[in-house]
Amino acid sequence: MSTVNPLLQVNELSKGFMGIRAVDNFSFAVPHGTVVGIIGPNGAGKTTVFNLISKLYKPDNGRIYLGGQDITDFKPYQANQIGIARTFQNIRLLGNLTVLENVMVTLGTRATYTMVDVILHRRSFQKIEAERLQLANELLKRVGLLHRCNHKASALSYGEQRRLEIVRALATNPKILLMDEPVAGMNRSEKDDLAEFIKSIVSEGVSVLLIEHDMGFVMSICDTIIVLNYGKKIAEGSPALVRQNEEVIEAYLGKNAHVKHS
Ligand SMILES: Nc1ncnc2c1ncn2[C@@H]1O[C@H](COP(=O)(O)OP(=O)(O)OP(=O)(O)O)[C@@H](O)[C@H]1O
């Protein structure tokens, strides 16, 4: 892990909506090979930070760098091309397509053959399609969804849909994966499996930035936790440090509360 040249660097980011400062002069970094969690009460500005990094929103102020490159003025597709992928709080899948088709569609956005190759069924097209199918199957196997590959996405349980969304995001071959409440709606064993899966993708070189209200999950998976309140950073540090921070306990959990392991 290196903090000298972080993968993602966010400097003095601000975004307001009709007089509300949703994100207020917020700076942080995600070092290579780490999991960073953003926590905070409802309306603290967490999803707005994701929307700014994935370029759905333009910041009022501040700069965003990925691998040292200034991406502040990028469009969403450029952010994706350079290696930023995300999952959403409200799951976004193609419900009428099968699980496998959902992944294949995303892999297809990385087209490396021409329409002529497709029409003539040239070997380059067939080879790339075969490789994609193999990659899709491997990804689905890793999240325990291979046996569901021919089911419609809409027929999956909530936890399975979340896992499929993660696979779709990973299919774009990201450097960093932004996950908005990844364990919402998951049962205990699904959460444990997802924690193991996140650790495995991080060990393979993908960094993770996640928003999560499940404190047990956040504490178990994150190297660093950042606490937002009213758009401002009020604390940052290891899970052990953040857990003991009085301001965090008061702002996030209410007085007399303690962060528990779930
Ligand atoms: N597109 C928008 N237009 C107007 N206000 C917005 C918009 N997006 C966010 N906000 C406001 O910005 C503030 C921060 O919202 P945001 O969704 O980022 O918080 P959050 O920490 O993700 O909350 P939650 O945990 O409930 O998802 C809120 O006051 C919200 O109403």
UniProtKB/TrEMBL annotation:
<dbReference type="InterPro" id="IPR051120">
    <property type="entry name" value="ABC_AA/LPS_Transport"/>
</dbReference>
<feature type="domain" description="ABC transporter">
    <location>
        <begin position="8"/>
        <end position="255"/>
    </location>
</feature>
<dbReference type="InterPro" id="IPR027417">
    <property type="entry name" value="P-loop_NTPase"/>
</dbReference>
<dbReference type="GO" id="GO:0005524">
    <property type="term" value="F:ATP binding"/>
</dbReference>
<dbReference type="InterPro" id="IPR003593">
    <property type="entry name" value="AAA+_ATPase"/>
</dbReference>
<dbReference type="Pfam" id="PF12399">
    <property type="entry name" value="BCA_ABC_TP_C"/>
</dbReference>
<dbReference type="InterPro" id="IPR017871">
    <property type="entry name" value="ABC_transporter-like_CS"/>
</dbReference>
<keyword id="KW-0067">ATP-binding</keyword>
<protein>
    <submittedName>
        <fullName>ABC transporter ATP-binding protein</fullName>
    </submittedName>
</protein>
<dbReference type="Pfam" id="PF00005">
    <property type="entry name" value="ABC_tran"/>
</dbReference>
<dbReference type="InterPro" id="IPR003439">
    <property type="entry name" value="ABC_transporter-like_ATP-bd"/>
</dbReference>
<keyword id="KW-0547">Nucleotide-binding</keyword>
<dbReference type="InterPro" id="IPR032823">
    <property type="entry name" value="BCA_ABC_TP_C"/>
</dbReference>
<keyword id="KW-0813">Transport</keyword>
